[in-house]
């Protein structure tokens, strides 16, 4: 078989960092090829070189046997027939699907855009992709799964023969993932080569033919998926053995003491209604559901980030007042929340790691009436050591750290407070395997210290592996409360997540 | 030492540019390099400096306050009316500061509780407060403010320096301490850097914004007191357009217009630069119409310089690698 992509001795240096070292490997035409590695291994940099984002590098990139050098991503798309579907799809929300797909290359009639032709052509592509939305649809009304399809449609509009997908399933529902995989198989049948980047190993085994692995900027190996195992992949990625799935290594310290009680809770815009549950001291309570089930909204309500419309929340036996806000949740309730989207909700993007760790517990770093920089730094350094954060620099801006390490910074923030009820929202989204295992270990440490955790997760292996108990939600209602670990089965959880009722 | 230079790089660059300007003016007219000119520069920068440091607080939270010129006018009128009617000058000053607090809280209310865009909210209060000033005085100036009040700010300390220069320095020192040494300072930067993240870290973002707008208005009130003391009369038209100079000084001094960054030192140097420019152009006899043109160019260049600096830094780093 011919080679679609060939990397020959690729080296890339940034000021002060050698991020890609002598990378050489190739991707066969018409295969689905996974690109694997931990955060910071160099996957994104390599993709950026391939797609013309970084025109300066050492070494050669060959497409279909010919050496190419792209000035910018546009040239790569139009002349190189190679497109990238971004993690967070870039779209203009106020335009139609057709306008977005053809953006910059609209079919013209004289000086004007030929909308008839545009919609005809785009609708043909959308049909090919089994999409339910039309070229005339406004992008603002699409779900994230549909936007992913839009991006693929854009690639096909430019007749791309090579398409990269960077974490395409990160914010998709499982039905959308199925639809995406269907499309990938179809693309493959039509001879399109797909490069696939994901941290979710199950997906690699479902959809990919081969996988190339990078570690610390070096090429490690390429493996045939059919002939390999989870363990082998992880070992190649991390360089040592790491537990492949979330699991509890120690017995659960959970008690009968109720630390948080939620009764008849109803949220804004009917996002969730009549929610009842309890959280026990030392417990890890999993919250499973599909994207949009209302789990995040409940947690934000309890934490005082959003207004509640009805019901009561009782923390350590005390009812929360109507004037509840995040400051009171932290100071009076002892609740912490680690949000789903680190970039927009988690860390302060202009602040250093030390400042990001300190912001929720400033009263601890005082000398007299003034804050003391040195105490903040000392506190952050202690947690960086304990949590093995890389690079171990508390003076770096958090925005420049990798996903897993950013998550540890936010964990350190809450561990620095007195909060004893910690809510995790998708704690390992975009976090690599090794950091995942460390985050699970930290969760166990926290419950061992007597804290109580709620873990909202859409990843089945995670929620099944880490929880003492699982609550399943469907479109704003609780459909199951599973206390027996024998019920922690994928099919059961999925059944409740799509609306099956426990009592029925 | 390196750390300090690193931390205040922007401030240092603006300071050097200001000194360069001073050298330039001195070469063209040696009369610029005198104690008297220096005093003039200091006095020239007082009003804008005090207004700018307050404005900086609003900008750091990601907002802006267009109403400061009007707060400035109302304070002048209110305090003038009281002192003219024989109220104790210190009591009158407290009243003036209270006006600042009240108007600032109202701005904060619009921005936090009504969730209005700060630009629109304070555009509204700008007209509202100006209107109050007109209605209060019927458009007539309040004159004959007694010397007992005026001397508090306008009196000379030593070497010809007036008390209000000291007032400005105290304002800057307090601002510096709030920003760099208190929890409120950390919260202000956090809210400006990423408001949602700050809120989800347990920061009371509403309270922080209230504080920022209140500080901003109180600074405007202080500037109003200084103005009243040096003129001896108050007018409802006072302070029109002052907000733009305050924004310029803060921006030149490195305050990030989107919020999250800015220092008292930087804003001080920004205000100093504008004052040096203004006085210098008078000393070298630049036509007053051209002064506007030059000031505009300097503001644009000084703000653009940040980008150039980053480019140069990136270029040097590439060369080294």
Essential attributes:
heterodimer, A: 504 residues, Rossmann fold, 3 domains, 6-stranded mixed sheet, 17 helices, 24 strands, B: mainly alpha, ABC transporter involved in vitamin B12 uptake, BtuC, globular
Task: Give a description of the structure.
The complex is a heterodimer of chains A (504) and B (321). Chain A has 504 residues and is an alpha/beta fold. Chain A is built from 17 helices and 24 strands. In chain A, helix 15 (433-448) links the parallel strand 21 and strand 22. The model of chain A has no long low-confidence stretch (mean pLDDT 89). Chain B contains 14 helices and no strands. Chains A and B meet through helix 10, helix 11 and strand 20 of A and helix 9, helix 10 and helix 14 of B.
Order of strands in the sheet with the most strands of chain A?
A: 6-9-10-3-11-12
- Total count of domains of chain A: 3
Number of domains of chain B: 1
Beta fraction of chain B: under 5%
Distance between the termini of chain A: 54 Å
How many β-strand runs of chain B? 0
Radius of gyration of chain B: 20 Å
- Return the structural class of chain B: mainly alpha
Helix content of chain B: over 70%
The total count of helices of chain B amounts to 14
> Could you tell me the radius of gyration of chain A in angstroms?
24 Å
CATH topology term of the largest domain in chain A:
Rossmann fold
Concise synopsis of the structure shown:
The complex is a heterodimer of chains A (504) and B (321). Chain A has 17 helices and 24 strands. Chain A is of the alpha/beta class.
Write the layout of secondary structure elements.
The complex is a heterodimer of chains A (504) and B (321).
Chain A: E1 3-14, E2 17-28, E3 32-36, H1 43-50, E4 58-63, E5 66-68, H2 73-78, E6 82-85, H3 97-102, E7 108-109, E8 112-113, H4 115-128, H5 144-157, E9 162-166, H6 174-189, E10 193-197, H7 201-207, E11 210-215, E12 218-224, H8 230-238, E13 258-267, E14 275-280, E15 284-289, H9 295-302, E16 308-315, E17 318-319, H10 326-331, E18 335-338, H11 342-346, H12 353-358, E19 366-367, E20 370-371, H13 373-387, H14 403-415, E21 421-425, H15 433-448, E22 452-457, H16 460-466, E23 469-474, E24 477-482, H17 490-497
Parallel strand pairs in A: 3-10, 3-11, 6-9, 9-10, 15-22, 15-23, 18-21, 21-22
Antiparallel strand pairs in A: 1-2, 1-4, 4-5, 7-8, 11-12, 13-14, 13-16, 16-17, 19-20, 23-24
Chain B: H1 2-7, H2 9-28, H3 35-60, H4 68-84, H5 89-112, H6 118-137, H7 147-154, H8 163-181, H9 183-193, H10 195-199, H11 205-231, H12 242-252, H13 264-283, H14 288-320
């Amino acid at each position: 078989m011919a080679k679609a992509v060939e990397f020959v001795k690729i080296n890339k240096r940034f000021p002060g960092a050698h991020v890609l070292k002598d990378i050489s490997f190739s991707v066969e035409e018409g295969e689905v090829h996974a690109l694997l590695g931990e955060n910071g291994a160099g996957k994104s940099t390599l993709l950026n070189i391939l797609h013309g984002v970084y025109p300066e590098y050492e070494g050669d990139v060959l497409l279909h046997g010919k050496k190419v050098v792209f000035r910018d991503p546009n040239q790569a798309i139009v002349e190189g027939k190679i497109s990238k579907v971004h993690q967070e799809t870039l779209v203009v929300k106020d335009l139609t699907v057709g306008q977005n797909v053809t953006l910059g290359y609209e079919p013209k009639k004289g000086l004007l855009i030929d909308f008839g032709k545009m919609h005809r052509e785009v609708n043909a592509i959308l049909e090919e992709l089994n999409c339910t939305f039309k070229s005339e649809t406004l992008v603002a009304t699409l779900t994230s799964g549909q936007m992913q399809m839009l991006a693929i449609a854009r690639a096909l509009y430019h007749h791309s023969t090579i398409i990269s997908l960077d974490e395409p399933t990160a914010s998709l529902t499982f039905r959308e993932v199925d639809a995406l995989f269907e499309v990938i198989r179809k693309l493959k049948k039509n001879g399109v080569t797909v490069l696939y980047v994901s941290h979710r190993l199950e997906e690699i085994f479902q959809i990919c033919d081969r996988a190339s692995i990078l570690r610390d900027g070096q090429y490690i190996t390429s493996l045939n998926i059919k002939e390999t195992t989870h363990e082998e992949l992880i070992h190649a990625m991390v360089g040592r053995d790491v537990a492949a799935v979330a699991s509890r290594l120690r017995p659960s310290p959970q008690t009968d003491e109720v630390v948080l009680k939620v009764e008849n809770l109803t949220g804004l815009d009917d996002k969730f209604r009549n929610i009842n549950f309890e959280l026990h001291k030392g417990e890890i309570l999993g919250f499973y559901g599909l994207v949009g089930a209302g789990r995040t909204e409940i947690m934000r309500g309890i934490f005082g980030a959003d207004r509640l419309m009805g019901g009561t929340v009782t923390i350590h036996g005390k009812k929360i007042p109507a004037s509840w806000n995040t400051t009171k949740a932290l100071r009076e309730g002892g609740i912490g929340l680690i949000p789903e989207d680190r970039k927009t909700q988690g860390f302060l993007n202009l602040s250093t790691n030390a400042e990001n760790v300190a912001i929720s517990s400033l009263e601890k770093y005082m000398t007299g009436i003034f804050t003391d920089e040195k105490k903040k730094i000392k506190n952050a350094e202690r947690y960086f050591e304990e949590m093995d954060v890389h690079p171990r620099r508390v003076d770096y801006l958090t925005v420049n750290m990798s996903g897993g390490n950013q998550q540890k910074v936010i964990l350190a923030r809450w561990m620095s407070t007195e909060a004893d009820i910690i809510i995790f929202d998708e704690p390992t989204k975009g976090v690599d395997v090794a950091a995942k295992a460390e985050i699970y270990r930290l969760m166990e440490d926290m419950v061992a210290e007597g804290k109580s955790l709620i873990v909202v997760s859409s990843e089945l292996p995670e929620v099944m592996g880490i929880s003492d108990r699982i609550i399943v939600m469907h479109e704003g209602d609780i459909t199951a409360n599973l206390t027996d670990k024998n019920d922690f089965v994928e099919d059961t959880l999925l059944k409740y997540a799509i609306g099956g009722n426990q009592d029925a | 030492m390196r750390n300090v230079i690193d931390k205040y790089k922007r401030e240092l660059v603006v300071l050097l540019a200001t000194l360069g300007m001073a050298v330039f003016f001195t070469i063209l007219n040696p009369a610029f390099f005198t104690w008297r000119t220096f005093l003039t520069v200091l006095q020239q920068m007082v009003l804008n400096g005090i207004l700018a440091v307050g404005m900086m607080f609003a900008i750091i939270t990601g907002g802006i306050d267009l109403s400061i010129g009007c707060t400035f006018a109302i304070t002048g009128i209110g305090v003038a009316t009281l002192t003219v009617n024989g109220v104790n000058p210190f009591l009158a000053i407290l009243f003036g500061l209270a006006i600042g607090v009240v108007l600032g809280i109202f701005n904060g209310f619009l921005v936090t509780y009504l969730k209005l865009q700060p630009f629109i909210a304070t555009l509204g209060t700008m007209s509202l407060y100006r209107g109050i000033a007109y209605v209060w005085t019927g458009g007539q100036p309040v004159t004959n403010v007694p010397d007992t009040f005026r001397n508090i700010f306008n009196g000379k300390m030593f070497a010809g320096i007036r008390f209000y220069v000291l007032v400005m320095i105290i304002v800057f020192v307090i601002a510096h301490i709030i920003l760099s040494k208190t929890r409120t300072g950390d919260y202000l930067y956090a809210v400006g850097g990423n408001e949602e993240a700050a809120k989800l870290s347990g920061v009371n973002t509403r309270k922080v914004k209230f504080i920022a707008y209140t500080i901003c208005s109180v600074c405007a009130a202080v500037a109003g007191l200084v103005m009243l003391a040096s003129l001896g009369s108050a007018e409802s038209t006072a302070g029109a357009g002052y907000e733009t100079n305050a924004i310029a000084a803060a921006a030149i001094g490195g305050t990030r217009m989107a919020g999250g960054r800015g220092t008292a030192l930087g804003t001080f140097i920004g205000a100093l630069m504008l004052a040096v420019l203004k006085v210098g152009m008078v000393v070298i006899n630049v036509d007053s119409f051209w002064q506007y043109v030059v000031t505009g160019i300097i503001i644009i260049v000084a703000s653009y310089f940040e980008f150039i600096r980053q480019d140069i830094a990136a270029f040097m780093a590439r060369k080294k690698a």
